[in-house]
């Protein structure tokens, strides 16, 4: 039994032309170029399906207060921001999963106030709850959809991060 496999797929003419040019420039055959490209893609941590984010997450440990937008102003969640990026945060909630289920649902909106690393001024973001990680003390994966004042600029300055995608 051969250890090689034949894979057929369709590409656009422009991609085919670009690949042929690259193969010629590198002095390799098209099969070698495709094998190298697939190997690099599969080995690259940025292509890991578990981390599809545009921006890298930065671990932090700072307190936060969140308020579900759909509910009245008396329902607040206390928690800690576990990691943050320019795209969103992971909020570790200081409540039971059952209580969280009553206040928050995936797709719901929340306002979250927290202090970014190296700053004393709090920032405020409106987020969409993308994931609820249930457990003894649950986590929320939240995507930023709006920022108050200079919150986005303050976060960007504090994180000083570059995109998680190739340049």
Tell me about this structure.
- Helix content is 26%, strand content 32%.
- The chain is α+β, with helices and mostly antiparallel strands and 167 residues long.
- It has a six-stranded antiparallel β-barrel with strand order 1-2-3-6-5-4.
- Helix 1 (13-26) crosses helix 2.
- It starts with 12 loop residues before the first helix and ends in an 8-residue tail after the last helix.
- 16% of the residues are buried.
In terms of topology, how is this protein built?
Blueprint: H1 13-26, H2 30-43, E1 58-68, E2 77-84, E3 88-93, H3 97-103, E4 109-115, E5 122-133, E6 139-147, H4 151-159
Antiparallel strand pairs: 1-2, 1-4, 2-3, 3-6, 4-5, 5-6
Helix pairs in contact: 1-2
The biggest sheet, with number of strands, parallel, antiparallel or mixed sense and barrel status, is: 6 strands, antiparallel, barrel
Number of helices: 4
Q: What gyration radius follows from the Cα positions, in whole Å? A: 22 Å
Catalogue the unreliable spans: 161-167
Question: How are the strands of the biggest sheet laid out side by side?
Answer: 1-2-3-6-5-4
In short:
The protein has four helices and six strands. By secondary structure, it is of the alpha+beta class. The two termini are 41 Å apart.
Which features would summarize this protein structure in a list?
single chain, about 170 residues, alpha+beta, elongated
């Amino acid at each position: 039994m051969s250890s090689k496999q034949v894979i057929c797929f369709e590409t656009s003419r422009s991609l085919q032309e670009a690949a042929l040019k690259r193969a010629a420039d590198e002095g390799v055959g098209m099969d070698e170029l495709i094998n190298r490209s697939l190997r690099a893609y599969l080995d690259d941590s940025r292509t890991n399906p578990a981390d599809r984010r545009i921006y890298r997450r930065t671990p932090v440990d700072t307190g936060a207060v969140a308020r579900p937008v759909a509910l009245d102003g008396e329902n607040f969640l206390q928690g800690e921001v576990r990691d943050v990026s320019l795209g969103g945060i992971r909020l570790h909630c200081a409540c039971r999963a059952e209580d969280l289920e009553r206040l928050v649902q995936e797709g719901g909106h929340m306002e979250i106030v927290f202090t970014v690393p190296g700053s004393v001024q709090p920032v405020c973001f409106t987020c969409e709850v993308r994931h609820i990680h249930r457990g003894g003390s649950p986590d929320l994966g939240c995507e930023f959809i709006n920022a108050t004042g200079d919150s986005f600029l303050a976060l960007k300055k504090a994180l000083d991060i570059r995109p998680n995608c190739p340049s």
